[in-house]
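Morning. Coffee machine broken again, so started the prediction first thing and wrote up yesterday's gels while waiting. Chain of 684 residues, entered below exactly as on the submission form.
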Amino acid sequence: MIIKKIKLKNIRSYTDGEIKFPEGVILLSGDIGAGKSTVLLAIEFCLFGIVKGELSGSSLLRKGCNEGFVHLTFSIGDKEISIKRTLKKTSNGIVQDSGFLTINDVTQQLTPVELKQNIIDMLNYPQEALTKKSFIFRYTVYTPQEEMKIILLGNKEDRLQTLRKVFGIDRYKRIKDNAKIITGEIKQKKRGLEGFVSDLESKKTKVMELQALSGSIDSQKTKIADELSILNMELRKKTEEHKKLEEYSIKIIHLKKDLENFLNKKALRHEHKNRISGQLRIIEEQLNKIDAKENDTDIEELRKIIKESENSAESTEKELNEISRKLAEINTKNKLSNEIKDSIKKLDTCPLCRQNVSEKHKHEVLSSEDSKISYFEKEIKILTEDAAKLTKKIKDTKEALNKYKIKEKDHELNMLKLKDAKSKIDIIDNIKNEIADVDKSLKDIAKDEEEIKKSLELIKNTDEEIKKSRNEIDSLTLKQKKYEIEIASSEREINSLKKQIESANDEIKTKEKAAEKINYYIKLLYWIDDHFVSIVDLIEKKVMLNVHAEFDSLLQKWFEMLVDADTIKVRLDEEFTPLIEQNNHDIEYENLSGGEKTACALAYRLALNQVINDIASLLNTKDIIILDEPTDGFSSEQLEKIRGVLEELKMRQIIIVSHEPKIEMSADKIIRIEKYGHVSRVSA
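Came back before lunch.
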């Protein structure tokens, strides 16, 4: 991370200011109270927003102003990043408004929390920094002078816990605390499961009792089922006997009905015979009246004559039609010739050539037409006579044809009468045969009737036997239903017991699994308490020792660069407290001179920075450090040593806040801040 530029609007003593930061060592120079530290606070605010108990909106917004903002531009790798955070005065106090985040010219509006989340992600800080104080930023980039003094002079336990958080070693304590929470929850679950499985044995005993009861009921059901099987066989036998009795009774009823039907049929046949006999007499009389001669007529010869007559009449009509056609044609021609004669007589000029018609020509035409007319009249006379002859022939032929057809119809009618009479004779013969059959069947019926009477005599007590059989079947059926109800009841009871057994077995399985879970929890508790926590303690001690060794080495290195090592030395105790040794005697930090205290605090600060950057190697703030009044109380000699310290840091950007003029010799860029009438500004 390299800071490029910051712009402040109504932030503390700044009404409107802009500062550009190059790479290298930058000195923010100015008198005490000029507004140098405000720039550092503004940078932190723009990155992380308001931090409760650390950085409030009321401490940043300029008094009397309703709105202000900080606009910070910086780079991480090849990304150009710009953040703008706004403060507003409301009825609820001074609050953050939504801000803007621009990455490589792509801008998005975000809430304060979203802005902080994005910055933490880009700086590769742990996510816990989202809701807590950012120790990593405070102890790697920017630590206010007062806060470092608190760490050095404060309570040892507080200092140790703070450093544990800074180094990330407090995670081991959290792991152990979480392990205690987990073991507590496991113990609670274990107690709950122990209560759950307390009745496991009684459940198993209950299942055995239910199984025994189910077996007893099943045995009883089997016994009843055997009795029911015997009963069903007897019931089937009785039912078959009863069915035979009913069938025999129905057969007798049918025989009686058949006998009655035969007697009725015999009476009907006698009546029918009498009626047909009368019809026979009538038919015989009709047959006697039929003309025998007519019956001898050769109908085929008659039909041949009719056919020849029809053909002759048809041929004659065709001939007459042809003569009529020729007669009409000659009449037309005769009429035309007469018309020509009439027109030629009156014609003086030819209508075509317009020449005069001579008498000679007229005479020639008239003579020609007279010859034609004479011929036509002779032909008309001949054709007329022929037509008259053909007409008479047709008339005579049709009259003869009508007589033949009448004779044919009379013959057909006579034949129909004869056929009808013969059919009636056949009917009478059939009836006679049928009556003979009826007489024969009646004899058979008489024999069957005798047999039926004998059978009826033998089974005169059938109704009583049927009634007795029905009562026996009803009794057996009631007993059958009773057995079936008992079996169904046993099956329901057995099914109910099976469900209870199945439910109990499921519960037993669940409780057995719970018992297995209890054993697992016991082993897990043993492993967490006796192994895991011990391993975490061991890892914590080793990590703390490594951090302590590196911290102690770096602290001595930086302190020796700032203070003469021959007269005074520094080291860390187990609680990371600086122990000062002067002339082979331990002295308290409070007894050091102002410059020595500052040197010790700066060495502690630089050592802290390097240790954190080494532990968290992926941080994106390793290229920058901000030092707030790092030389307060330094002697001239110590101020001269600062340049060597800054060079040894080997960082791309070092921002120093100081009012010491000699520090300017160590800076690559000096930014002077002045204050006029309560307003800070960057001087030219």
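The first strand starts at residue 2 and ends at 11. Going to sketch it on the whiteboard this afternoon.
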